[in-house]
């Protein structure tokens, strides 16, 4: 493994990775020191740092003001690379827009189940109502049956997200790796959930380093305990310039 930073491209999930998961998706907070750490690390990596998330880019930007990082939002449906922004238009998904309204009616009397409308995808959360897990999953899969093969379910921690079949973190990381400043670099991807496993698969196939936050079965090569542990590692890397985790750390 190279001792310096020039050969790396760093990809970071958001929820459960850079920040702690909270009961309500709109209540997440970013550690005050994190944006500056990411900015310093971005400089060390020659700009090859991106946040890869299921959140919309607009939501993520609001948490990192005034910093603006490369990002993939909505599992890759939205992208910003070196300032060039490519967005998803919800109007291109009329069937999904109708489904969002239907889902709202279906769960209206289910206290604790939250519908998160992301425009080009929709997530059903049951963290506040764990006893409703089977109902939420059945609702998500029934929605997919109605929508057809253009859409799929992405499972996560107490969430099932309905999104276009073309979306996926592995696919968008692959796309980034074909663009400067990421092209030709060894990828590192840090995530915490089922949504990140196909990203790990892509990174592993490129001879990169995959890092899982927390417990759970994974194909990642390295495991860290908590988002706070990762933030400490990133701070060390930004300040000292040496990679803070290696394959034999797991």
List keywords for this structure.
250 residues; alpha/beta; Rossmann fold; Alpha-Beta Plaits; 8-stranded mixed β-sheet; 4-stranded antiparallel β-sheet; 7 helices; 12 strands; 22% strand
Task: Note down, in words, how this protein is organized.
There is one protein chain. With 250 residues, this protein is an alpha/beta fold. It folds into 2 domains: 8-88 and 168-249, Rossmann fold; 90-164, Trehalose-6-phosphate phosphatase related protein, domain 2 (Alpha-Beta Plaits). It is built from 7 helices and 12 strands. The protein has helices spanning 34-44, 57-64, 94-106, 133-147, 169-176, 197-205, 227-240, and strands at 8-12, 49-52, 70-73, 78-81, 84-86, 114-117, 122-125, 151-156, 159-164, 186-191, 209-213, 222-224. The strands form 2 sheets. An 8-stranded mixed beta sheet has the order 5-4-3-2-1-10-11-12, sandwiched between helices. The longest helix is centred in the middle third of the chain and has 15 residues, at 133-147. The chain is globular and about 55 Å long. The mean pLDDT is 93.
């Amino acid at each position: 493994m190279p001792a310096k930073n020039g050969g790396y491209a760093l990809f970071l999930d958001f929820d459960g990775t850079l920040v702690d998961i909270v009961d309500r998706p709109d209540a997440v907070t970013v550690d005050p020191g994190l944006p500056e750490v990411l900015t310093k690390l971005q400089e060390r990596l020659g700009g090859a740092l991106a946040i890869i998330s299921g959140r919309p880019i607009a939501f993520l930007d609001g948490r990192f003001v005034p910093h603006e990082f490369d990002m993939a939002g909505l599992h890759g449906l939205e992208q910003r690379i070196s300032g060039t922004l490519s967005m998803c238009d919800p109007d291109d998904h009329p069937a999904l827009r109708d489904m969002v309204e239907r889902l709202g009616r279906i769960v209206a009397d289910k206290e604790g189940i939250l519908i998160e409308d992301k425009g080009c995808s929709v997530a059903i959360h049951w963290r506040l109502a764990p006893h409703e897990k089977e109902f939420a999953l059945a609702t998500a899969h029934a929605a997919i049956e109605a929508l057809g093969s253009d859409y799929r379910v992405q499972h996560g921690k107490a969430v099932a997200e309905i999104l276009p079949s073309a979306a996926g973190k592995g696919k968008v990381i692959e796309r980034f790796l074909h663009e400067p400043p990421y092209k030709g670099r060894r990828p590192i991807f840090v995530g915490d959930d089922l949504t990140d496993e196909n990203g790990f698969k892509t990174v592993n196939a490129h001879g990169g380093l995959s890092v899982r936050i927390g417990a759970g079965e994974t194909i990642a090569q390295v495991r860290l305990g908590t988002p706070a542990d990762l933030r400490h590692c990133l701070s060390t890397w930004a300040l000292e310039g040496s990679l803070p985790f290696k394959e034999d750390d797991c």
